[in-house]
Amino acid sequence: MITLVVTSQSSGAGKTAVCAGIASRLQNQGKKVGYLRPVIGAPPTGGDAYFMKDILSLEEPLESLCPAFTNESMFDRDMKAAFDAVAVGKDVMIVESASASIAKSLEARILNISTYTEYTTRNNQLPVSVTGGFESINGDALINKVPLSRMEAVRAAVKLNSPFVSVIHEDRALMTFTIAELARAIDGEILNDADKTDLLAENFMLGAMTIDSGVPYFHLMNNKVAIVRADRPDMQSAALQTSTRAIIVAGTAELEPLVQGRAQSKQIPFIRTRLDCAAVAGRIEDTLVKTRFHQKSKLPRLMEILQHGFDDIALHHVMGM
Question: Which residues constitute the domain of residue 220?
Answer without folding.
Answer: 179-290
